[in-house]
Design goal:
This protein is mostly beta strands and about 120 residues long. The protein has strands spanning about 5, 10, 20-25, 35-40, 45-50, 60, 70-75, 80-85, 90-100, 105, 110-115. Strand 5 (about 45-50) and strand 6 (about 60) form a beta hairpin.
């Protein structure tokens, strides 16, 4: 059965850091591009970062560029999101998504709260 399980979320002060992980199972992880999305209360879900299946290319939303880094370890079937210099506007539920041609899989999300 296909599963994407996010972890690493929590409460952090502004300026702090968190590393999110998304563990995949039930499909050929190394053939899928991976994405991180986030959704704040009352707002639409937005794409935060993307990484190609091999890890050779990445893309970031302008709002997180220079602060967040997406990476993957295909041997561990895991994608990561390193988040530094966190701001209150980074607060939300973070989701990972796997994409390959017509196949799309979503995780259930992990909460990130940036607050003093």
């Amino acid at each position: 059965q296909v599963q994407l399980v996010e972890s690493g979320g929590g409460l952090v002060q502004p300026g702090g850091s968190l590393r999110l992980s998304c563990a995949a199972s039930g499909f050929m992880f190394s053939s899928y591009a991976m994405n991180w999305y986030r959704q704040a209360p009352g707002k639409e879900r937005e794409l935060v970062a993307s990484i190609s299946s091999s890890g050779g290319s990445t893309n970031y939303a302008d709002s997180v560029k220079g602060r967040f880094t997406i990476s993957r370890d295909n041997a561990k079937n895991t994608v990561y999101l390193q988040m530094n210099s966190l701001k209150p506007e980074d607060t939300g539920v973070y989701y990972c998504k796997a994409v390959r041609i017509r196949d799309v899989y979503w995780g259930r999300g992990t909460q990130v709260t940036v607050s003093s």
